[in-house]
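Predict the 3D structure for this chain.
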Amino acid sequence: MQPFIPWAWRDPGLLMGQDPTLLKRRDESLEADEEAHASLAGYDVEATDGGIGSIDEASYAVGEAYLVVDTGPWIFGRKVLLPAGTVQHVDHVERKVYVDRTKEQIKSSPEYDKDTFATPEYRDRVGTYYTDSYRDVPPPLR
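Done. Predicted structure below.
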């Protein structure tokens, strides 16, 4: 089994969706690459045991990729930071992102703070939390 790498997409090809124009233009410029990925904002997010909210923001930076998920009323309006490595599958038709962690695992993650979430200390805490969760409960086999 491959080790969990929190801040990297398991399969960057999942992000491209169904638009071959964006896929072709992706290599042409940073703007085209960002445009191809921008469509994840607003997607619903599904944990292994149900919906957790929708994507408010996403980063595709190499080695720093993440999703900020607005959980709405599920956790009293709290937002959570999900490392890109938790993403198992993206369904562009249904506009859903599937992660392989449970709602409880996500709810127990370090609290999101918009002012500090980009700091190395916070990202280390989140990365360690999810890395430990994969050691304790490996992702389901497909």
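The mean pLDDT is 83.
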